[in-house]
Design brief:
By secondary structure, the chain is α+β, with helices and mostly antiparallel strands. It folds into three domains: about 190 residues, no CATH class; about 60 residues, Single alpha-helices involved in coiled-coils or other helix-helix interfaces (Up-down Bundle); about 130 residues, Heat Shock Protein 90 (2-Layer Sandwich), CATH 3.30.565.10. It is built from eleven helices and five strands.
């Protein structure tokens, strides 16, 4: 089973947030068809009835294009934090001008409603939203009343009766679309806050780990260093009066320093432990992020912990060299068990010219592998490939492992020969 690293999880979360942002923006842009299509249908009908001429028709088409651009800008800036007053005023002026076409066809009454829905995506108080809805409803209801009187003169319902019906109807429609859009905006904000919270938790975890490490070092070294300081001062005072006692005190200082060093090494080894499967997953993520296709086989099971740790360091150093020193487009990682030994091979197709000497990175790897009786080989293979290979013997079933022969954890150098 593949193990996801922290970088994998962060990248996956960022991709998920970006995907949701695109879906949200596209849904609003798809909704723009709700005013573009009715307006075009109304324009065609009015032109066919002879109510508008070619100049007016062209002006309306240009106005629809400008309103669509303004609507898109209101949506984008509204989701990003808030539209500017200039964008709101300019798009509102275009929407109001186009809404005058209600006088020739009632299908143009959707323009003002969609403008209000786009403006509502920006942070607005409840009072401002109510004012927007009432203003748009009053404007559209007045135009609709005049249009009915103009297109259907002598109707049974007087103008004030029409106004009493259309005004609350427009208010209700505006409120529904505003509520829907603001609800969708709240969902987008919740996704942003969740993403930010995950980042904050990750930073907090790193901070907590640093604090824990500092506390551990303080606990380990505080007593030992205090004891060393006291005994050193005592030895200085005893140098002339009691040399034997001074020598005994300095021997205690030496033993205390060695014990402190051993404890620090043990603590740091715990912090520097690396996992083979985690390093392999991290190497794949880093290489692919750098545009290098990475192929990795299955990991053999039942490898001793010390062997897995050294192989993990090999993968880490090899990945660093591929990124820093090669022009590779492909990197293949294979790990093969032969029963009494295991071989790790990293092959990339971007070998660059080298000076034929091992850098400190490969030298450090060779030292780690040599502790387990293995060896590191690195060099060109074929025309443009570079191969880094680690061969490590596996301990037998009856082999007694001595604590002191375990590979000491030392910092992995990222400098090395070109890979």
């Amino acid at each position: 089973m593949a193990v996801a690293t922290t970088a994998d999880l962060e990248a996956q979360d960022t991709r998920r947030l970006e995907r949701y942002r695109r879906v949200t923006h596209r849904s609003f842009m798809l909704a723009a068809l709700g005013f573009i299509l009715p307006s075009l249908i109304g324009l065609i009908a009015a032109y066919g009835d002879g109510r508008v001429g070619v100049p007016v028709a062209l002006a309306v088409i240009a106005g629809l294009g400008a309103l669509t651009w303004g609507y898109s800008r209101l949506v984008r800036t509204g989701l990003e934090g808030g539209a500017s007053l200039r964008d709101i005023v300019l798009s509102g002026a275009v929407a109001a001008a186009l809404s005058l076409m209600i006088l020739v066809n009632p299908l143009f009454n959707v323009l003002a409603v969609f403008w209000v829905s786009a403006v509502a995506l920006s942070p607005r108080t409840r009072r401002e939203i109510i004012a927007l809805c009432l203003g748009a409803a009053a404007f559209c209801s007045v135009l609709s009343t005049v249009a009915v009187e103009r297109l259907n003169p002598g109707g049974d319902l007087p103008w004030y009766g029409l106004l009493a019906i259309t005004f609350p109807l427009y208010v209700a429609i505006c409120w529904v679309v505003v509520f829907t859009n603001r609800y969708q905006r709240r969902m987008w904000i919740m996704h942003q806050e969740t993403h930010a919270a995950r980042d904050a938790l990750a930073r907090l975890a790193v901070t907590e780990e640093r604090l824990r490490f500092s506390r551990d070092l303080h606990d380990l070294l505080g007593h030992s260093l205090s004891l060393i300081a006291v005994k050193s001062e005592l030895a200085i005072r005893m140098t002339e009066t009691d040399p034997a006692r001074a020598g005994a005190e300095m021997a205690d200082v030496r033993n205390t320093a060695r014990e402190a060093l051993r404890e620090v090494r043990a603590a740091v080894s715990g912090y520097r432990e690396v996992e083979l499967d985690v390093e392999l997953a991290g190497a794949r993520a880093v290489l692919e992020a750098a545009g290098i296709r990475c192929e990795a086989g299955e990991l053999p099971g039942a490898l001793p912990p010390e062997v897995r740790a050294v192989l993990a360091w090999v993968i880490r150093e090899g990945t660093t060299n591929v990124i820093k020193h090669s022009q590779a487009a492909r990197c293949a990682v294979s790990l093969t068990s032969y029963g009494d030994s295991v071989a790790l091979e990293m092959r990339n197709d971007g070998a660059s010219g080298g000076d034929g000497t091992d850098g400190s990175g490969l030298t450090g790897l060779a030292e780690r592998v040599a502790v387990l009786g293995g060896e590191i080989t690195a060099g060109r293979h074929g025309r443009g490939d570079f191969v880094l290979r680690a061969d490590i013997p596996l301990p037998g079933p009856d082999t007694d492992e001595d604590e002191d022969t375990a590979p000491e954890a030392v910092p992995a150098s990222t400098a090395g020969r070109s890979a």
